[in-house]
Write a structure and sequence with these properties.
InterPro entries: AAA+_ATPase, ABC_transp_ATP-bind, ABC_transporter-like_ATP-bd, ABC_transporter-like_CS, Oligopep_ABC_C, P-loop_NTPase. Belongs to the ABC transporter superfamily. GO terms for molecular function: ATP binding; ATP hydrolysis activity. The protein has a domain of 162 residues: 3-Layer(aba) Sandwich (Rossmann fold). It is 36% helix and 28% strand. Helix 3 packs across helix 4 and helix 5 runs parallel beside helix 6. With 300 residues, it is α/β, with parallel strands linked by helices. It has an 8-stranded mixed sheet with strand order 6-7-8-3-9-10-12-11, with helices on both faces. The chain is built from 10 helices and 12 strands.
Length: 300
Amino acid sequence: MSNELIRVENIKRYFPVKNNFGQVKTVVKAVDNVSLTIKKGETLGLVGESGSGKTTLGRSILQLETIDEGQIYFKDQSLITSSKEEKKQLLKEMQIIFQDPYSSLNPRMTALDLVLEPLLLQFSKTEALEKAKAILTKVGFTEEMFSKYPKEFSGGQRQRIGIARAVVVKPEFILCDEPISALDVSIQAQVINLLVDLQKELGLTYLFISHDLSMVRYISDRIAVMYLGKLVELGPAEKIFSEPQHAYTKRLLQAIPIADPKKARAAQAENEMNHLEEIDTSNQTEWVEISPEHFVLKER
């Protein structure tokens, strides 16, 4: 039996940019011929700067974006060519944790009601209540907190509601779309540890999108690097950090904050110089495996 849960094949998502007269003047290649797999039970980290296409890729997998070309398979079933009913059943096993824990929650619903809502579609109210209370307790809520509204919670607590809401229906796959970027640094590690614990307990598979490389390194089994819509490197997390191959991956790693002030200033100066030079990937069309499961985009 295949260990692949998700397989993405040569997908493209382009956005036309029009001038004031409604004419297309250029096309933004948000996702440009990307292929990858996500294994059952793993966390695949997806990194890149703003505009790299990582969120568009994630949303395309969940069918929140319509792709222009390519195929997306979940458990060997196509999300592109399957019938409406088949797709609906497949998407029930896929959930998302959003970047902003406040805007993603209905402000007029209590914590309990927010987690209860998706359960009522599958279970009796008694059973749904039991499951909702159990998962809220698991993510760190006490019973007196169940009746509070989102505005009464901190950002970290709101994100815990979002996580509880995502995992309570027992999905196989969760897209974590920058789930810690809106949180205080002191809270980020707590949320990451919660995600790790839930993954072990529930057998979840994550696509973890972030620009925070230190957190990505901690949570990920493998890391995929995107640059201007292209996947430029993919490999085991430690390999990406210890033996980066693509020029863009090296640039990202140079941008990680350094504790030593002198080294930090030197690294910042070098990184600023590197950012002045755009990396040309137009002739990089060959996906090369340089070591087991470590791939890089190179020129033919």
